[in-house]
Design brief:
With 292 residues, the chain is mainly α. The chain has one domain. Helix content is 76%, strand content 0%.
Amino acid sequence: MTLFQGIFMGIIQGLTEFLPVSSSGHLAISRYIFGLHFDNILFEVLLHIGTLIAIIAIFYKDVFSMVLNGIKLIKNLLFYLYTKLIINFLLNKKEELPKIIVTNEERFVMLIIIGSIPTAIIGLLLEKIIIVSFDMILVPGICLMITGGLLSYTRKIKFGFKKEKDISYFDAITIGVFQGLAALPGISRSGSTIVAGLIKGLDRELAVKFSFLMSLPAVFGAMLLQFKDISVNSISGIITLPHIIGTVISAIVGYICIKFLLKLIRRNKLYYFGYYCLILGTIVIITYFINI
């Protein structure tokens, strides 16, 4: 991989991860254009780390709160189990069971956890299909058309008013299903989850924030799956200057794009990206049939 390719794909990742146009679809198309059919997926993981840094930089207060309240949830759960199994069962006492979820902040963390479950299940079920689809340019083309349709539909969605305390567990599961399906290249993760949030009545800015915060467990989970068979020595040998530059650029561009997207969604202009996805998807599909 050349330095230019690393820079180019870093820009593509930063732009497309947060703008609702599918980073995986654009990466698949870029790999097709450049002929980058490498079996080392480490660079794609590094690019996602870059955009992960961008999310944390924008929503650092929410991320810190999630970590803190996640620890509280674990503590509450352990105390619940201790009371139920040790105090009430073994010692045969009748103490009232403590609550596992006490505050709205703890409930918000639980919403993220619950929403991540269908994402993980769908990702595991579609794993082989997802891997194969990256080398079949027709799949990103079709999926981009689907993304375009979803984004175009936002013109008809009325403004929602749900705040964090109003989100139901079913809302979180619905958004998690959309996120799971977005593992297919061409279906925008941010676009599909934001649209799902809007359909479920979330406030527009909350739909964006919930979308990005829910992506954190998905990205970490994907990273663990990618790294489980890679040794430290092999990683040090694989990472080159283009990888590092691409990761840094994806973080910087991603940060700018999140800020831009937050402004854009206030104006209800997501459907503009729908037109882009429909046009690009059409071009990709036509190109595929021309080259058969």
